[in-house]
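REVIEWER CHECKLIST
Item 1: Sequence provided? yes
Item 2: Single chain? yes
Item 3: Sequence as submitted:
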Amino acid sequence: MKAPRLNPVQVAAIRKAVSDQPHPRLLWDGSDRGTILANVASPGLCRELAAQLRFRCEAYLDRGHKQYLDLEAYDSMALFNLPGQHLLSRIMEELAFAGWLLNETRYTDRAKQIVLRRVREAFQTEAGPDPDYSHCRSPLGIGSTGCPFATTADLLRPVLSRSEWAEVVAHVRDYYLAYARRSFFERARIHSPGFNKTLYGMCAIGLLALVVAEAIPNDELNEAVS
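Item 4: Structure as written out by the authors:
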């Protein structure tokens, strides 16, 4: 028994609805920005949370702080083992969001450096990309790194060049979507649809597909969002 799929009309409708929205588009649309910034500027919880976010991001950029992220000191193995990916995923998401929220290009630039290094140093084999490497080996790994990668890529899209965005799209397709399509889509949907790890991984796949919806074929979009 195969899990149900959307029909072509439904897939086309999803593609159009998503494609009509400029980035960032996962967490809000463009009309939300004024309200969000007004809340941050006014006394209250939003301002306090924004201040805490700024403090953390400044620490990531401050060479004298114990939380400083020395990206150049990480070799590929440290970047791509799962604990390293968890750490970097959280940091890049915070930096990207803070850059958007606080209009701080330093944060945005650092988030972009992390994303591009991760994309460019993804494990390769002689046959091409290796979707089984580290953070793509399980639904939990996909969920814990894919969700923040999706939101970060969405936030950074306006500052990525066409060629840089193409690299991001290729990474999503060659690693995340390739693993999900080959290794757990049908099994997860049929045998363990309610498991937390499965749901986490499938949510990440859906978010990643929506971020790059314009650039992937209908069958990949259908699998990811069905």
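Item 5: Key structural point noted by reviewer: The chain has a mean pLDDT of 79.
Item 6: Recommendation: ____
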